[in-house]
Specification:
Helix content is 16%, strand content 36%. It has 3 helices and 14 strands. A hairpin with a 6-residue loop joins strand 10 (145-151) and strand 11. Residues 1-10 have low confidence and may be disordered.
Length: 202
Amino acid sequence: MEQLSFFAEAGQSRGLPKELIEYHPGFIDPQMSDQLLQQFIATIPWKQSTQKMWDKEYLTPRLTSWHGDTGTDYSVSGKISNPNPWTPELLMLKEKVDQVAGLRFNSVLLNYYRDANDSVAWHSDRESVLGKNPVIASISFGQVRCFDIRNKENHSIKYSVLLEHGSFLLMKGNLQEFWEHRIAKSARPMKARVNLTFRVVI
């Protein structure tokens, strides 16, 4: 496969499959993005979960917070999480992504990547409560991080998207069934990043 080549104006690698993923930079204007980043960092009830691997528990390398309608319980890092209430800012963003996606999302998972050491490993969002082929809408604030996608059966088929401040990413189709994604640790210093992934819990 050819070397990944990023388009500066779109922040994505060549040949990104449009039937699986859409990327829109500048979805939220810079001034509002700055304000929301600082507000989320300061006011969201962040928690650091633990994950069990090989009979040992490890701290998840990022902070998370689950918000949504009543009854949208969700498993975050293997632990059932009852939703925190919507905030006015989260509802405002939900309304924007609802319009673009043509869906009514009922929940959102917030992730706080504090520095270059925070990450999320290769995974797919295939929990049964999301149904088959879920649509997930993602907004990013803060530090630009690389969002990697690879085919589950052939890891040489892969793409990357630079998730910019105020950008919008829509995951759709059978992406969760046949592909996996990650935010890798970085060898370079990284500032804070907050990511919101809107979901429909059935």
